[in-house]
Amino acid sequence: MMESTDKLTDTNAILAYLYETFPLCFIAEGETKPLKIGLFQDLAERLADDSKVSKTQLRVALRRYTSSWRYLKSVKAGAQRVDLDGQPCGELEQEHIDHAQAMLKESQEKAKAKRAAQAPKAAPAGKAPAKKAPKKVAVPARKTGRPVKAAPKIESAPTVNLVQAQLTDLAKKQRVNVKLGMTPVAGVITDINKEDIHVQLDSGLTVKVKAEHILL
Length: 216
Hints:
29% of the residues lie in helices and 17% in strands. It has 216 residues and is an alpha+beta fold.
């Protein structure tokens, strides 16, 4: 019987495949484990003969996994990075821990703001209920004439203004931000090969991008 060569294109399906293939590395439920730096190369080599997944889809799936709240929560002091077989690969650096916690906080604040924006219009939060008029008052209560204070607006977290980098601005070991999805991800340039820039992200993933995808 011929094996199916249909590629997995849905990110959730690829993650499910990784959970099943590497259960000691990729955790489907509950607390995860920080991944080895450079794990993508190991993953690409291990799945080189697997026709189900492409490198591009693997990058997308790995990016989603390492940006999830439960993964970011696992990047903490004392935690050990693991390889594809679940073997320890050293403790986390404080810089990576700080970056993960900052990403987690930012993501949670964005989710909170989005929920607030989608909530149905209701009475302003924190507004005290109107006081009942005393029962003994025989005449209509006079209006105070005081304006009703509006609920304070919730200010969004200040955004960091990043600018697109030029190739001439970049150098090895320089810290930069890479445009991956909606949120720039911090990392360090490990190599520059003509127009291809290799960046090791703080999550451990290494990506190859053009200068137009790098922010300073």
